[in-house]
Every structure is written in structure tokens, then in C-alpha cells.
Amino acid sequence: MKKTLSFVLALMLTVGILCPLVSASADIENWYVKTANGKGLNVRDLTTGEKIGVVPYGGTVGVEFFNKDGWAIIVWGSVGEAKVRQEYLVKKNPGKYVGPTDGQGNVLTDTVLGSQTVEGLNKQYAALRYVDSYSVVVVPDTRTGTARFRWAPSKNSTLIAQLPANYELTVLAASSNWIMAQDPTSGKIGYIAAKYTAAK
Fold first, then answer.
1. Most CB atoms closer than 10 Å: which of 4, 45, 120, 154?
2. Strands 71-76 and 80-85: what pairing?
3. How many alpha carbons lie under 13 Å from residue 100 in its C-beta half-sphere?
4. Residue 10 in domain
5. Greater confidence, 112 or 77?
6. Mean pLDDT value across residues 83-108
7. Are residues 92 and 115 in the same domain?
């Protein structure tokens, strides 16, 4: 009888310990990484903001919750908790990277990106969404070694500057194919194709 009672008490204790763990894990949702340029998503320390890892395009992260400041709090290995930019997370697996896309996930060709028509340009502006500012770095065009910073979200618009690799910009608004950013050095605001940037 004593053995049976001891077993029951041990079982109850085990269940009592495991239940909170199961409950906590139930709150974690898997989200997929989908960056505009097909690069990985930087994982940052929750307190210092230092880069502590990278999740590849299409990789999954366990999200605990989304902050109002644009960061998603995730479960990250032995560290426990870390943060990533939430605009690069989607619920559906994006599959293999095929190029910049619009809001519906359609791949945008150079023709669409470079539209000179008012309608085409308006579509680019309309797709932009203002965000809490964050930093990105330039990942240059492999042909030129630089990326073009322009006056409008079109590759036919006037050039402001040719930016070198790792040049830092402050993002003000973004779509899946264009970023409106401010150059901290000159103070100028312009546009850069999202595929030539990476989260800092």
C-alpha cells in the first residue's frame, strides 16, 4: 500500500512539474524567416542588442511574443531568449528564395522595379509601410561593388549616391522590394532596393 501511495505521489509531483513546462511551450509559435534579399536574419542579444547568431532564409524561430517596438522575442538555444526584427517573419514557409516580391508574394522583375510610368511608381510608393526606425547595411551589387541610393523607388530615378559595402542606413519605411532610408552621414533621405540591404 505504501509503495502504491509513494508511486501516486511521485506521479502527481512529476505531472505538477511538467504541466507548467507544457503550458509555457504551448505559447511559442514557429515563424519562418523571409528577408527581401534572401539573406539570413540576424539574432540579437535581448539586452545588449549584439549579434549572437543568424537564422537562414526559410529557417524557423520559436516566437514567444511580438513587441510594439518592432522586435520579436524568440527562444534561442542555451541563451534562453533573444530578439529578431519581426518584419522578416512570416507564418507560411517561403520556400526557396527567388527574388524580391510584392505584398502578395509575386516575384518582381527588373521591369516592374524600374517602371517609369506614374502608375508603376505609385505602386512602389503604395507598397511602402512606415516602421519604427532600424538600421541596415548595404550589400552591394556584385557587378559594381556598390548599391545605388536614389530619389525615388525606381531604378530609373535620379541617383543620390553610390554606397559601398557595409554602409549603414536608417530605415524609415519599407516594402518587400524598396527601402526608404536616411543616410546618417549626409542626412539625405532616399530609396535603395531591398535586395541590396541586410539587417544590421
1. 154
2. antiparallel
3. 23
4. no
5. 77
6. 77
7. no
